[in-house]
Amino acid sequence: MAAASGGAMRRRPAAGLVRAVRAICGSGRAAAAAEAEGLRAEQLAGRLRAQRSQEEKQNREIPKDPAQRWVQKLAMLSKQLQQIHPNVLAKVLKQATVYQNEEIVVINKPYGLPVHGGPGIKNCITDVLPILAKMLENMNAKPLHLCHRLDKETTGVMVLARSKEVADRIRLLFKTRQVEKIYWAISLGDPDPAEGIVDIPIVEKEVRSHQSHYKMTLAPNYRLSPEDGKVMKIRKNRNAESAVTRYRLLASSSACSLLELQPITGVKHQIRVHLAYGLGCPILGDHKYSHWSKLAPQKLPEITLKRLKLEQSKARHLPLHLHAHRLSLPLGQQIDLICKPPVFFQKTLKKLDLDVAND
C-alpha cells in the first residue's frame, strides 16, 4: 500500500505538469489568434482609411463647371467598360442595335470600347459576340462575326454578320471598295480648300524622342524643289500603303470645323493622319496626332476653350470626335445604315455653334 501510495503521489505531479503545459499552450494559441485578429482588423481599418481618402480626393477633384464634369465623366467611360461583366457589356451592345435582318446585325459602337482584345484589355466586342447573339435571338444562336473594325475611340456604324459565309461576303465588299463609308469629324481649323481629295500614302514610323513610340505618318510621292519650288517626284517608300480620303466642309465656327469624310481606302488611322498632317486640321480630341515628336495633350485655341468652357489643363480628357455616320452596303439590295453621333459629340456641336440642321 505504501508503495502504491508513493506511486500515486509520484503520478500526480506529472498530471499537474500536463495540465500546466496545456494551459500555457492554450493561452499561447489564444494570444496568437488574438494577435492575428488584431492584425486583420488593422489591415481592414487601413483599407477603409485608404478608400475614404481616395473618395475625398475624387470629391475634391470634381470640377464645379458642368462642362468640365462632363469631360471628366467621359474620361472614366472607357475604364468603366473594362470593368463591367461581359453579360452587361453585351446588353449595352444590344441596346445599341440600330438594324438587323436574317443576315446582319448593325450596332452604334460606343466610345472607348475596343473591337479586339490585347494587353490590358478585359472587355472587347469580339469576346461578347456569342452572348450578344443569344440575347438577340435565342440560347441556341451561333456567335456573330466581325465584318470590319473601328478604332477604340471611334463611334458609329458597325456591321456584324450572323454567319461566317455572310461575313466573308461583306469583308470582300470592303476589300474591293464597294462599301461607301461616311464619317463625321470635328476638327481644329478649316481645311483649304473647303472640299477635295487627299491622296497621300501612309506608313508607320518610329518617333525617336524621350518617349519612343510608333505613329502612322505621310509618305508622299512628291515634294517641292527647294531651288525653284517646282513639284518633284521622289522615291516611293516600299512600306507605304496607298491612302485616299475625300472630304467636305459642312460647318465652321469657333476655330473648329465639322467635316464629312469618305475614306476610299482603309489604312490604319487614315482619316486622322490625312486631317492632321495632310490638311493641318487635327481631329478634336486626337492627342496622338496633334503632335509628331511628343506625346502630349492637344493644344486648343482660346476661343475653342471658351466655347467648351474648358481649361487647357483638362484638354487631355477630351474624347476623339470621329464618328462613322453612314454606311452603304450592297448586300443583295442596297442597305443604307445611319447612326446618330453620341451625346458628347452632339453637345460639342452645340457648344461650338456648328449647325448641321441641313445635313
Question: How would you portray this structure in words?
Answer:
Helices cover about 40% and strands about 25% of the residues. The protein is of the alpha+beta class and about 350 residues long. The strands form three sheets. Strands 1, 2, 3, 4, 5, 6, 11, 12, 13 and 14 form a ten-stranded mixed sheet that branches. Strand 7 (about 200-205) and strand 8 form a beta hairpin. Helix 3 (about 85-95) packs across helix 4. The longest helix is centred in the N-terminal third of the chain and has 60 residues, at about 1-60. Mean pLDDT is about 85; it is low at about 1-15.
Residue stretches low in confidence (pLDDT < 50, at least 5 long) are 1-13
Structural class determined from secondary elements: alpha+beta
Mean pLDDT: 85
What's the SSE pattern?
Answer: HHHEEHEEHEEEEEEEEHHEEH
Rg on CA atoms, Å: 32 Å
Distance N terminus to C terminus? 119 Å
What is the approximate shape? globular
Beta strand count: 14
Q: What is the share of helical residues?
A: 25-40%
Proportion in β-strands = 15-25%
Contiguous helical run count? 8
| Main sheet specs | 10 strands, mixed
